[in-house]
Amino acid sequence: MNSDSYCCPYCNSNEIIYDSYSGIYVCGKCGSVLERVVFYGLETRSFEQTLPRTSGSYTNRVHDRGIGSTELGTLGIPYRSKRKWSELSRVQKVIRVGRDQKIVEKALRLMNQYSKTFEVPNYIEETAAYLLRKAVEGKNYKTKTLRNLALASIYMACKIHGLPMSSKQFIKKIDLQPSSFWKALREINDIVNQLNMRSRKEYPESYVASIVNKLGLSHNVEILANRLIDNSRKIGLNIGKPCVGLAAAAVYLSSILLNERKTQLQVAESVGVSDVSIRNRYSDMVSNMDITIYM
Questions:
Q1: Distance from C-alpha of 177 to C-alpha of 188, rounded to nearest angstrom
Q2: Which of 31, 72, 142, 195 has the fewest beta carbons closer than 10 A?
Q3: What range(s) does the TFIIB-type domain occupy (predicted)?
């Protein structure tokens, strides 16, 4: 049909529009559907009764990157053939992990377990899996070392993507030996340097929202804490000071000023720093910003 030489039989309008998505001609004046034509777009539905094969997406979180996880569908398979298919499926599960890939599969399995513990996003898991794969390929590490490397890769992935996570809180949550963790982290850091990857610079503001949420404080406390951090930066109080300690002190001071008081110990436990660190940063802010606190 040529829409230029065709008119609507209902309103005699020449405003004929072709909808390429639906494959129909529509009158632009009265909206009548005039004719359906062959749709030349992509076929989005499958009318087959069998599912020939299904596969997961490409991912670093599996030792074969998801490519070898293909399985045959069971729709349309006769009953007598299902027993044979089940036997092939069992054999496939045994041979899908090669001898040289067993160490990678074990390390990634540990990494996936710890990722669920820390509830990190998928993009963090992908980066951590990539770093861990580079660290353990061709090696013969024991389970304890793989565990430390898996945790170190998650921590480094958080640093690369700018996700705030205190190292002390990280170690405490999973009950790690600090010396073993830092040793594994140095190895992961070497991998990062070899790959020319860079971790994002930390800012105290990135910790504020997490601390406020854990303590159940209001949004006004978060806003005031960010302002205090900004003022601290302007007068140089942040130089040489840990970001997490400065953020915790700002939240503590804001909670006092807005009458939503939390103790130093409560704030310290929420972020994994000592109450002494909070007390020192708090004293610096109060003395240098001319703030008077009435207890």
A1: 17
A2: 142
A3: 4-35
Q: Which tokens is 288 given?
A: 């240098």
**Choice between 22 and 55, residue whose per-residue pLDDT is larger:** 22
CA dihedral sign, ordered 269, 273, 279, 282: negative
160 in helix, strand or coil? helix
Shortest CA distance to 210 belongs to which of 261, 251, 255, 155?
Answer: 251
What domains, with CATH codes, occur in the chain? 3-36 (no CATH), 53-96 (no CATH), 101-194 (1.10.472.10), 205-288 (1.10.472.10)
Tokens 């999973």, located at residue: 174
Q: How many Å from the N-terminal Cα to the C-terminal Cα in the chain?
A: 85
- Report d(CA 255, CA 219) in Å as an integer: 11
Give the pLDDT band (50/70/90) at residue 24: confident
